[in-house]
């Protein structure tokens, strides 16, 4: 079993203010590795005073950064890409250490971040602006301008990828960027800050502030922060969205999910077995795109057998990582017991899976069959490798259940029928739909974003729909005295 190497020394995650690494001046926060349950790092809360000083530096830096031509801003991002590729092993190791993912998943997250970065690099070609002579001598044009200082608050489950959804686009558009990483996984931020500095990003354009709710509130409330991007649970997304918009700021807050997969009897057993098992076990189910409820329509036992077999082979520490905290592990175990006490049959119990040695937080893939429609296991975002199967007699019943769930991040269907797939694509209540794909994350330049309780605010977090969120579009109309003939040529 290949576990990651755990360093002996404690890694510090300081703040990054005006291009310098400065320890947060508030209480200390320990970082535990889910791999062994031990403290591997430390960060600190940031006081209101320190946050204020940091934002003042970010504001100063932004003025010059915005005046730097887009082509030159893009060059920094191009260098950043090369450094990330060079250092991918080192960064992936830290992501795994603090988050508990397996190394290949950490690398995949960084590669997805690089895809967003490549999109940002192409902005100079994609978004060159437009100008038109609307009547003789009168010209209208669009000019994209930065907002100023913008902020981003990120969750624990993708310490590199989620920040990389917004860092390249918001910064390339000329903003300076305040990043508040999850207090559970702040170590990766240090590597990203160093990589951007080496890439040539001027001091102050990226600021990293560590802390918890108070730190977030101070950032949102600061008069010089123009926009707030947030990714995390729906409960906090709603709080952050309300707070920012009450102050007249733009906010885009992505929340939690409860993603449904509809399995139809004509689905290919091997394809659906792999696709569905990998969807609920990938990143130990700790991703907002994970399958969580399987709506099994009609006679699909062959396919379910194939899912169980694939999930059984997903060994802990090797093919699947750990759960973020002991509390979350206990919560998942309680949720499994609760579902069983309500009549669900446990087809696969991850608590019995072989665990790596030590005190890490491990739970193997768990499949619950015959889950009741209105139970906790079918409605609450569990955020672990637990899939609930609800048996349905037809597609309409499956769609009714999918539509009734309050979230709306992703939904998928596994079928060989194009017509049935189209019915699901048209009627699923989700921002992202997969057809024979368990994790339907759109690739750049297609935007990422859900609906309903999975997203508060307008627009999407990546791709073309994110550009208007991180910038103003100024409309300039110009009039020149123009001659109507060609005398000017003589
Ligand atoms: P979380 O909501 O607990 O924390 C997210 C961020 O909010 C952290 O930086 C945290 O410090 C901050 N925060 C926590 N409490 C706060 C408060 N009271 N006020 C202000 N800020 C506060 O989420 P998490 O546990 O880190 O991440 C898991 C959640 O994120 C899941 O629900 C998952 O579905 C969701 N998620 C969603 C997406 C998406 O694209 N929709 C992507 C990744 C994760």
UniProtKB/TrEMBL annotation:
<feature type="domain" description="Aldehyde dehydrogenase">
    <location>
        <begin position="21"/>
        <end position="476"/>
    </location>
</feature>
<dbReference type="InterPro" id="IPR016162">
    <property type="entry name" value="Ald_DH_N"/>
</dbReference>
<dbReference type="InterPro" id="IPR010061">
    <property type="entry name" value="MeMal-semiAld_DH"/>
</dbReference>
<dbReference type="InterPro" id="IPR015590">
    <property type="entry name" value="Aldehyde_DH_dom"/>
</dbReference>
<dbReference type="InterPro" id="IPR016161">
    <property type="entry name" value="Ald_DH/histidinol_DH"/>
</dbReference>
<dbReference type="GO" id="GO:0006210">
    <property type="term" value="P:thymine catabolic process"/>
</dbReference>
<dbReference type="GO" id="GO:0006574">
    <property type="term" value="P:L-valine catabolic process"/>
</dbReference>
<keyword id="KW-0560">Oxidoreductase</keyword>
<protein>
    <submittedName>
        <fullName>Malonic semialdehyde oxidative decarboxylase</fullName>
    </submittedName>
</protein>
<dbReference type="GO" id="GO:0004491">
    <property type="term" value="F:methylmalonate-semialdehyde dehydrogenase (acylating, NAD) activity"/>
</dbReference>
<dbReference type="InterPro" id="IPR016163">
    <property type="entry name" value="Ald_DH_C"/>
</dbReference>
<dbReference type="Pfam" id="PF00171">
    <property type="entry name" value="Aldedh"/>
</dbReference>
